[in-house]
């Protein structure tokens, strides 16, 4: 589908919502997004011009459908989390050739190194508190949207590694350690699934919106807490700022609990940090496989694959002295 055809079809989708004279102007593809394509555009109705975002991508059995994304974002917003205002979402391929979601454009920055450069110490502390508050709100949100499923993260990522037919001694040892030391399960909640720097819009030192809900599911709060704190999402920040490169894990957890999140057991969080780091390692290996198999020849995917050894080091570092 050409950009011109997409713009015409998108206008047809928006006219029942915004008015029969609505047209789409300045449609342009945005960078980023491994599983979905993101477009920015203006919806023009008479003298009114509204900046909007279109997300679209083929259906699959890994990512949440667009209608589910819309439903859980509405639930998260009701609980107090900052999310984009969604106009329409559909799992049908009829209108635009793929499922789609249209939401309001939100001003701010998503590129983490740019965010880091504009923050001083007070700004980092403020943003860290707001990230913790948003995550606490997500975990309080209703988890009854149709299509939400429960996921066992350890089983899922071990299965994905096994399906590739390739592993490492470090990964296998880590999975055995996780199985031997698994903590008791905690209550199930709505889980974002990819809550990290890079999936947040930051305006100055304020959290403007939580993005990329395609991995949303029902799980334990520790999954989101740990994922935010692995080294990959610090983007070069020192270990003293392990929580998203903004502050310490203790500061992040304290702010989360203060915002109404569940009480966090530190030993349980450590277990989930190992699993989260291992998850990133499996993802790196999977991206390499996409390149090596010829499925998607890409220098970027090959470069991500080279980071497998980094995650092995991180896993060993986390498990140093573990029984």
UniProtKB/TrEMBL annotation:
<feature type="domain" description="Aminoglycoside phosphotransferase">
    <location>
        <begin position="27"/>
        <end position="272"/>
    </location>
</feature>
<dbReference type="Pfam" id="PF01636">
    <property type="entry name" value="APH"/>
</dbReference>
<dbReference type="InterPro" id="IPR041726">
    <property type="entry name" value="ACAD10_11_N"/>
</dbReference>
<dbReference type="InterPro" id="IPR051678">
    <property type="entry name" value="AGP_Transferase"/>
</dbReference>
<dbReference type="InterPro" id="IPR002575">
    <property type="entry name" value="Aminoglycoside_PTrfase"/>
</dbReference>
<protein>
    <submittedName>
        <fullName>Acyl-CoA dehydrogenase</fullName>
    </submittedName>
</protein>
<dbReference type="InterPro" id="IPR011009">
    <property type="entry name" value="Kinase-like_dom_sf"/>
</dbReference>
């Amino acid at each position: 589908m050409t950009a011109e055809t997409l713009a015409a079809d998108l206008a047809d989708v928006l006219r029942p919502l915004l008015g029969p004279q609505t047209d789409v102007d300045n449609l342009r593809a945005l960078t980023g997004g491994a599983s979905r394509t993101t477009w920015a555009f203006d919806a023009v109705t008479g003298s009114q011009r509204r900046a909007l975002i279109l997300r679209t991508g083929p259906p699959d059995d890994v990512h949440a459908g667009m209608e589910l994304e819309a439903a859980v974002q509405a639930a998260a917003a009701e609980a107090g989390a900052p999310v984009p205002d969604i106009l329409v979402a559909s799992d049908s391929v009829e209108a635009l050739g793929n499922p789609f979601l249209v939401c309001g454009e939100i001003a701010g920055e998503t590129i983490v190194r740019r965010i880091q450069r504009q923050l001083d110490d007070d700004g980092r502390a403020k943003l860290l508190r707001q990230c913790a508050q948003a995550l606490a709100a997500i975990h309080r949100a209703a988890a009854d949207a149709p299509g939400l499923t429960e996921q066992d993260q350890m089983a899922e990522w071990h299965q994905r590694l096994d399906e590739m037919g390739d592993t490492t001694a470090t990964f296998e040892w880590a999975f055995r350690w996780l199985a031997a030391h698994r903590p008791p399960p905690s209550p199930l909640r709505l889980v974002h699934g990819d809550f990290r720097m890079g999936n947040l819009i930051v305006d100055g030192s304020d959290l403007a919106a939580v993005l990329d809900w395609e991995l949303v599911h029902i799980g334990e709060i520790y999954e989101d807490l740990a994922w935010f704190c692995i080294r990959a999402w610090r983007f070069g920040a020192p270990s003293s700022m392990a929580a998203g490169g903004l502050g310490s894990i203790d500061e992040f957890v304290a702010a989360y609990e203060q915002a109404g999140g569940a009480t966090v057991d530190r030993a349980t969080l450590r277990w989930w940090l190992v699993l989260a780091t291992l998850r990133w390692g499996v993802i790196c290996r999977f991206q390499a496989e996409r390149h090596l198999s010829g499925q998607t020849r890409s220098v970027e995917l090959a470069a991500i694959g080279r980071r497998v050894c980094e995650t092995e080091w991180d896993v060993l570092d986390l498990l140093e002295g573990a029984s």
